[in-house]
Amino acid sequence: MKYRSLAVVFAVVLVVAFGIAAFGPFLWSPTGRLFHTDGRGGVLDPDDGDESFSPSHEPGKVVRSADYELSGPYVHDNLTLFLVHGPETLDGRSILTLQEALEQKKAIVHETGNVNSLTVENLASGEEVFVLSGDVVKGGQQDRTLPYDALIGPRSGQVAVDSFCVEQGRWTKRGVEEPEHFARTQSNVGNVQAFKKAIVMKRTSSQQEVWQGVEQTQERLSKKFGVSVQADESRSSLQLTLERPQVRAALEPFSRALGGIVRERNDVIGFAVAVNGRLVSADVFASRDLFRKLWPKLLEGSAVEAVLESDTPTAGTVSEADVRTFLAEAESLRPASDATTERTYVQTRQGKGTVMQESCDRSRKNLVLHRSFMRR
After folding, report:
1. Which residue range forms the structural domain that includes residue 306?
2. Mean pLDDT value across residues 158-173
3. Those residues with Cβ within 8 angstroms of residue 305's Cβ, 6 or more apart along the chain or in another chain
4. Stretch 48-76: mean pLDDT, rounded?
5. What is the DSSP secondary structure assignment for residue 59, as one 8-state letter?
6. 351 domain residue, yes or no
7. Cα first-last separation, the chain
8. Is residue 40 scored above 70 in pLDDT?
9. Could you tell me which residues come within 8 angstroms of residue 263 by beta carbon, excluding any fewer than 6 positions away?
10. Which of 13, 25, 59, 192 has its CA 20 to 30 A from that of 287?
């Protein structure tokens, strides 16, 4: 009996050792998203000087930046935009944004009781739902932002998605909102650098950085307007801060001046953003229709960044050549990390000054749904 027990223990040790050896280069998020890491417990960063990373998949069909046509600059105050024109690789007419799906009662975002995980349920029978990285969902036990793109198929059941809290402290029903689900998503912080950097640069354990981003954003806006932008209902809520009258009044001129630049242009698939004469980001989509539907939210997120940085000295002007260099530089970087779910594959390329993420639909041979470029 003694020897049999020792044999069992030895077998367990062998299994654990094999598991570490086989799966050490990977890391799971709370939703089951599989991250390919550097094998030392952290997600691979090319600045570490480790060139051993090998992506688990390759992105599929995509329009390369050399094939983009650019128009602009379109300028309001310290915000400069360039539109990206090009062919589309996906007919997005049957894809709903998460905001559309919630408004039409065709999707439910469920609270799970886990700060870093929610579930999205697509109720539609013939439409897919696209979750845009940076979307803020309002309600539940506390407001969240969804850090990664996801495409949710028709009649999906509940699909797990990663999340970060953007309302520290609350874990109860707020007002008339239902604590079991999230009824609205009207803001996106994907182009607000404090949040984009926290999410992209630190693929794991970045909740603290996101909370710091919320606090810093509230402090900077309060200082700028000379009055607190924290809401009495929940002083830590980023979404409620973005709904404050002072903030809405500051954002509205950007929407009025720049919102219509896509109206007469039917071939727009994305845009590049510069704040104070410095390129900060670009987003390009597989579908023109999908981009057009996301445009108001994307523009507002860029305007938030411009308002936050309005007191920063201007670095100069940005040219079309600058945008092309920025995009080409990101494309040339080697893959640094990737993540896989049942439906979505995300590959990240990182360098010392630039990051690019490509979100792919695995059901369409890894067709690239969204390319996100960012200055570090």
Report:
1. 65-332
2. 92
3. 191, 192, 193, 273, 275, 280
4. 87
5. -
6. no
7. 60
8. no
9. none
10. 192
